[in-house]
């Protein structure tokens, strides 16, 4: 999940429960409101850790389950895929059956899936459990915001959604470190076990949550949901399997072609549905598209590092899981304070558009800087600069984008716009993490292939070795060689992986730079044509 924030309920469709109606307390009243707030905030603290902690756990899971490296990747990808795919459908279903019921179902599913993850002895069962947890997370995210919005009003609501940003940032900041500490001390299963226990506390708070439904909920757009989820699944599967099957293989080409075909079908279906999951007319709004591209920049500069960089530190530095997770705090802790800085800059006269320009600039510069300093044995002091800049870049737009999106569309389209933002945000994360992982494997394999002849005692192939390195395991392959050769072999592996990382980081910096320029131009477009102030470019 990376860095997602909650969006407001759907304007024009949401009917808030009135004080004294339904079950639970009135808006902002009594201890019930406090319990509801605590339950949702605890949920938002938990969900991001499932993404940021996953990369740290992979080496431990691989050693324990003896999983194939291909199956091991889906521990991360399965959660990301289902989380991203079911957001829009989850919002529609919450409107139909009730937000509290949806929240309860999501919490129950996430709890059960986390418990199953902790108990799984087969990696394929673990992959299925993580996919189920992603569905539960989507249900929790889509319903939790509406529950808070119907429980609190006025200034209290503003303070509550500020707390939402802090809780989500806290989950991002602590996930990798918590996973590392738990994996090194109690084993990787304890990480998912803690998730299950904490979510049980959330379930105990369900009786205090308010129920509300959409005023004219038309039901779930199942044709749109099925075609969208299937398209995203085929795209991710093709991206993940590209290095394994070969990018020119019929299987991979078929998967990618199927993804494109299903996305076209999705567009045709949505144009003909009376109540589509997504209103395609929003794509014509240049300012909305610009704002929705900002999380894509975050994805390529920041989010791809969350599950993948800890594995690099395990291989290139010989770090423990705990040390790798602690290093990641350099890029996650700034999220807790930088949003306050962004607010102060705007209050002092800096336009929101300028803040949105500064944020991608920091992200682009940070990822380019990281490419220049990354090397085997790199210490926290050298990593601090680029990682902190990346954290500042994310913090400058953290939550601000969600609010700005609501100012550039008609009031009746705010729900659809917020849903599109979160879907593009999480969808880009799911695909980009898979693509970055595949690129690292591909590039590392080419570099390993050229140098393995220097180690005739190693009998594995370069493809399997590249997969092992990207999963954070260099000790297993090195252990197959005589002890006197292991240090030189480990250094060779670290340098090959570093070369692959530098290439991926520089490519990410180029993508981010191009998107940043496009975002700045698109946000200025209407203002320059009409001469009128633009809500997305003025404080």
Keywords:
disordered N terminus; disordered C terminus; antibiotic resistance; MFS_dom; Growth Hormone, Chain: A; 22 helices; 539 residues; mainly alpha
Gyration radius over CA: 23 Å
SSE succession: EHHHHHHHHEHHHHHHHHHHHHHH
Main sheet strand line-up: 1-2
Total count of strands:
2
Would you tell me which CATH topology of the domain at 1-15 and 24-211 applies?
Answer: Growth Hormone, Chain: A
Percent of residues in helices comes to: over 70%
* Residues in β-strands, percent: under 5%
Tell me what you see in this structure.
This protein has 539 residues and is mainly α. Among the domains are: 1-15 and 24-211, MFS general substrate transporter like domains (Growth Hormone, Chain: A, Up-down Bundle), CATH 1.20.1250.20; 221-276. It has helices at 30-52, 54-65, 69-85, 87-97, 99-119, 123-151, 155-185, 189-204, 222-245, 250-272, 286-303, 305-316, 321-327, 329-332, 338-347, 352-373, 380-397, 400-405, 414-451, 462-470, 475-478, 486-530; strands spanning 14-15, 213-214. It has a two-stranded antiparallel ribbon with strand order 1-2. Helix 7 (155-185) runs antiparallel to helix 13 (321-327). The longest helix is centred in the C-terminal third of the chain and has 45 residues, at 486-530.
